[in-house]
Amino acid sequence: MDKTINPEHIAGNGLIHRRHLLGLGLAGIGTIAAGSVIAADTGMLSIPAWSKTPGNGPSDYGSPSAYAADVKRLAGGPSATAPGSGVSRTPLHLLRGTITPNSLHFERHHSGIPAIDPAQHRFVIHGLVRQPLSFSYEDLLAYPMVSQIYFLECSGNSGANTAATASDTNAAAIHGLLSCAEWTGVRLSTLLEQAGVTAAARWITATGADAASMGRSIPLSKALDDIIIALYQNGEPIRPEQGYPMRLFVPGWEGNVSVKWLTQIKVAEGPGHFRDETSKYTDLLPDGKSLQFTYPMGAKSVITSPSGQMQLLRQGIHEITGVAWSGHGSIRRVEVSADGGSSWADAHIEAGQQHLALARFRLPWQWSGAPAILQSRATDSSNNVQPARNIWMAGYSPANRYHYNGIQSWSVSTQGEVKNVYA
Ligand SMILES: Nc1nc2c(c(=O)[nH]1)N[C@H]1C(S)=C(S)[C@@H](COP(=O)(O)O)O[C@H]1N2
Ligand SMILES: [Mo]
Where are the alpha helices (DSSP H) in 71-165? Predict the structure, then answer.
């Protein structure tokens, strides 16, 4: 450590204000990289082999650098009992920013990915409407569209941390059923208006074209608010994994209601009580009863770096960074603790669209080599505060795995090993 650097500490165990890091200039950077960025000789200007001959030419579809080949989804194994069923998880700890590249968007399939030819696919709106409608893919492309950045989170995300003992895994394994993309498509309200919803209508039910025939019920008020029939994902046609050629996208709500490979919407007086909203995707309470239709995802955050199974290689200044989101609005505040919640400091939140989208937070931390427990706590625009794990656990049956949004704790040992712990 350079003894001339003495940043103002704003919370216990080494959290420092961002303005001090900026003010430190090169001295601060020197501390970050332990002097490795100081140019020691003129060899720094020697010409590497890749600069001496022309490289590969352009290609028709890009791919990541061979040196970034480890930035991959964490895929689960095949299911013996339900073919095609399973998940792959977004490698949150290997990404920075807020947008999930399409190839790294998490997946959750109940019966695999149907190979849909868009020319053969139909999407039908029927039920309590004056005029049932049937759309081809081409038909939908002709409608006015909107583009919005939204997170998508499976209600089973982070459920691993409801287990009795903390699993020694990484951020992807625990929290990777979470992604964020720019979704472009047609507002459902536009199509429902054209069909003419009748006075008795209160709900819609949506069904997918996969072999699981995934169906979910959604109140009409949400359908008329911000739901879209998504056709594009980060600018390109949505991927087969995400529901090609079209999916329902229900902003802020548990991922399960965003029915992929959408084939019909029925307007109805009441919910359909499908399998995935009765036996599954309901929240078991301590008294043995279940909550049904608990749609919005709670205020939540997770530090993605440093995070589980990482290794701090040196003492000094590290940037603590992660993502925060809420199904109840935008992220108003993220606090970070380095002493297991005894003291907290406000992290810097990057500007950008945050309504029902991921927010990126950052805070510098001066690690002295002492043990630490890193935590983050989100507050959303509706004043929901992310609860401590024990508070969340007290509200549900120990068997409930859905809608877990408790505070994540990462311990840092004197050796710099980062681990998932309950604190
Ligand atoms: N038709 C259909 N829609 C579906 C599913 C499915 O298996 N079939 N899985 C649901 C679940 S549980 C989630 S979390 C999200 C996952 O969307 P993604 O695979 O694009 O990440 O899709 C939802 N929509
Ligand atoms: Mo899900």
Answer: 137-141
